[in-house]
Amino acid sequence: MKPIFLGLAGAMFFAVTFIVNALMEAQGGHWIWSASLRYIFMIPFLLLIVSLRGNLLPLFQEMKKDKVKWLLWSFIGFGLFYAPLCFAAAYSPGWLIAGTWQFTIIAGTLLAPLFFIKIHISGQTVIHRQRIPIKGLLFSIIILAGIALLQLDHLTNVTTSTLLLGLVPVLIAAFAYPLGNRKMMEICEGRLDAYQRVLGMTIASLPLWLVLSIYGFSTTGLPSTSQISQSLIVAISSGVVATVLFFMATDMVRINMSKLAAVEATQSMEVIFALIGEFFLLSIAFPSPIALLGLIMVILGMAIHSFASRNEEQLNTEKSVMHMNA
Fold first, then answer.
1. How far is 279 from 127, CA to CA, in rounded Å?
2. Facing residues of 121 across strands?
3. Is there a contact between 268 and 103 (Cβ–Cβ < 8 Å)?
4. Handedness of CA 306, 312, 316, 317 (dihedral sign)
5. Nearest to 109 by CA among 133, 79, 138
6. Beta-carbon neighbour count of residue 163 at 10 Å?
7. Shortest CA distance to 202 belongs to which of 216, 215, 190, 192?
8. Alpha-helical runs (H) found in 66-133
9. What's phi and psi for 129, nearest 5 deg?
10. Nearest in space to 40 (alpha carbons), one of 220, 225, 211
11. 49-58, 131-140, 145-154: which has the minimum mean pLDDT?
């Protein structure tokens, strides 16, 4: 049960991102500063954690082996993930972004063939390409239907262009996050722990945040004191605590597909946590019955999808092992 509790705790801290980003947007804060300050503030906290654990030098040695891949996949996994989410906050409420963000589990499924699993058989290592879990993908219809209800309900209150500006960036982020993070896990091959990996990717994505900061300063000036403090809250809660909790949870159960599915399914609770937070802190209007139905479908579909995908993935792996033994 520990991985599940870690996953739920991670979802709660992740939800802070959607709530505080909505708050900063409502107070006139620019999305560029919301995005860049989070990762800039994350670095000293992660440096302290990794240093106290005595793992800083091994991280730098690992990053030095392939600087280009670290820069590329960190840019995708962190840069193309978070900058679009902050941009979308100007056009959609946080709970709606959180609901649409759950498309990431479908995106992760579609990206499966880009990754490989190493299977050890009789002293030999066999590289097994992952397959798209068809059953899990079929259950994605529930998630897609739920997101469609959310967006259609939102369309009744905004223009089509506004809806697309709040939707398309989230879909880009939904593909970028699993792609970048899984590629880095593949490159590291278990040599780095969750703290090291998050710190390494944060440092490698720093050029993007510095460029955005320079652009933000030249166009909108310095961020307000409130936006700085709110970005610090996001950096600690979502950037450090939530990310590390989720990585720890997935690392604990990475060899058990059913348990890994359960941990990934906990992230659907981000929607509920974000809705509750915005309702009480920002006094937003409560979602309509149609939107609530969409939220329920997203959460239910995500849980079913996770279990179906992981069970099918485990079955495919076992078949590959049997085939190689034969």
1. 48
2. 124
3. no
4. positive
5. 133
6. 18
7. 192
8. 67-74, 80-88, 94-101, 104-110
9. -75, 130
10. 211
11. 131-140
| Mean pLDDT within 116-133 | 65
The dihedrals phi and psi of 37, each to the nearest 5 degrees, come to -65, -35
Contact 177, 85 (CB under 8 A): no
Tokens (6 digits) for 60: 């730098």
> b/e map of 14-23 (b: 16 or more CB within 10 Å)?
bbbbbbbbbb
Please give the single-letter amino acid code of residue 218: S
Q: Which residues contact 221 (CB under 8 A, 6 or more apart)?
A: none
CA distance 109 to 288: 30
Q: Which of 95, 75, 89 is nearest to 32 (CA)?
A: 89
* Contact assessment for residue 59 and residue 200, using Cβ atoms and an 8 Å cutoff: yes
Task: Give the CA distances from residue 157 to residues 226, 280, 287, 288, in Å, rounded to whole numbers and listed in that order.
Answer: 29, 21, 12, 12
Over residues 24-41, the mean pLDDT reads 93
- Does 320 have pLDDT greater than 50? no
Is 103 in contact with 143 (CB distance < 8 Å)? yes
